[in-house]
Amino acid sequence: MSKDKKQRFISTRLSIMMFLQFFIWGAWFVTMGTYLSKGLGLDGAQIGDAYSTMPWGAVIAPFIVGMIADRFFSAQKVMAFMHIVGGGILFYASTITDFALLFWVLIAYAICYNPTLSLVNAISFSKMDNPEKQFPAIRVFGTAGWIVAGLLVGFMKIEDQNLPMKIAAVSSFLLGVYSLFLPDTPPKSLGHKVTISDVLGLETLKLMKNRSFAVFAIGSTLICIPLAFYYNFTNMFLNDVGVVNAAGKMTLGQMSEVIFMLVMPFFFARLGVKKMLLIGMAAWVGRYLLFAFGSSDSLVWMYYIGIMLHGICYDFFFVTGQIYVDNTAPKAIQAQAQGFIALITYGIGMVVGAKLSGQVVKHFTTETSTAEEVVESVLAWQQIWLVPALLAGVILILFAILFKDPAKETAPVDSAE
């Protein structure tokens, strides 16, 4: 087999891996709030706690990858174990009706799934000659997997059922078996001592001496608090106000993500880091205001625009932020710096956001009884969405005042070492 054919064969295998990886997540996570609310009758606070399990998994994941996978086992074998065990756990979760038990089972699943997010990247990068050019073409299949999952669940009209969890569980088992046939990726830290400081990226704390980097790190963590409102309650909201095929409509967000990823270089060259970050944050404010003042009839277009703003919300802030970190951190700790930012945003920020969003939804929920003495929950969605809009707006203003564009920095970040 020629080198080109071999590379295409490997790329195809990696693309299938990436598709399944995000199909699993997209199949159950988006609609879990609707299932927990309508299927199990849980309140907003409980739903927020359930959604906090994945961020908790993000906090724990670096220890599994850094202390175990990178030192003792090939990445594809860890992937196989995590997905096979995780599939069993998620299938069991789909059968649970007691919230206390469900919470801890979802924690167990999050601990299995989150490490695989970095493992799929590690496997991909290890088999590429030119990651900058080759990785985007493979990573886009992950977005495609998420989109297909949303379209499937929406088409089947099962958003308020446990079937999405079961679909994800079976897919997880399939990916686990498939992982055993992926290219071998030996542990990269074999024979090397790895410290907790390395795993958590604590060397990155030295960069906090630079004010703008500190503002970026804190701002990124804080913006993930209102961000959690979208991930946790949008599907439940759209179903509650009568939007048909809500899961399918929500895939417009991932479609816009692909589009804005393609045009990012054009805007980045003209706007610079600060303006890109501010536009991304402003998009969150706009999205929540559109949700607050839209309606499912004549103003349903406001919901659609709010969903499609996902491309700007994610790409302009988080992808730009990854570029900023890569350009700011010294080469010796670039990987640690990226891991640290992921820990404080998708971990700590989203944990706080999940807890707060759940409490806000519960606060603005009114229980009413019908003539047949059936208790119904009425949610004041406008007031709910105004809370993250206000939070994101305050963070946006503070960020605009305190963050300096890297081009205007007077001292290099390396001086913080």
What is this entry, summarized?
This protein has 417 residues and is mostly helical.
Percentage of β-strand residues: under 5%
CATH class of the largest domain: Mainly Alpha
Give the overall shape.
globular
Mean pLDDT: 87
Structural class: mainly alpha
Q: Which percent bin holds the helix content?
A: over 70%
Report on this structure.
- By secondary structure, the protein is mostly helical.
- The chain has two domains: 186 residues, Growth Hormone, Chain: A (Up-down Bundle), CATH 1.20.1250; 211 residues, Growth Hormone, Chain: A (Up-down Bundle).
- The protein has 15 helices and two strands.
- The chain is globular and about 70 Å long.
- The C terminus is likely disordered.
Name the descriptors.
mainly alpha; 2 domains; Growth Hormone, Chain: A; disordered C terminus; 417 residues
Furnish the topology, listing elements before pairings.
Elements: H1 3-28, H2 32-39, H3 44-51, H4 53-72, H5 75-93, H6 99-126, H7 131-156, H8 163-179, H9 196-200, H10 211-240, H11 246-293, H12 300-308, H13 310-328, H14 334-363, E1 365-369, E2 375-379, H15 381-402
Antiparallel strand pairs: 1-2
Helix pairs in contact: 1-6, 1-7, 1-8, 2-3, 2-10, 3-14, 4-6, 4-14, 5-6, 5-8, 7-11, 10-11, 10-14, 10-15, 11-12, 11-13, 11-15, 13-14
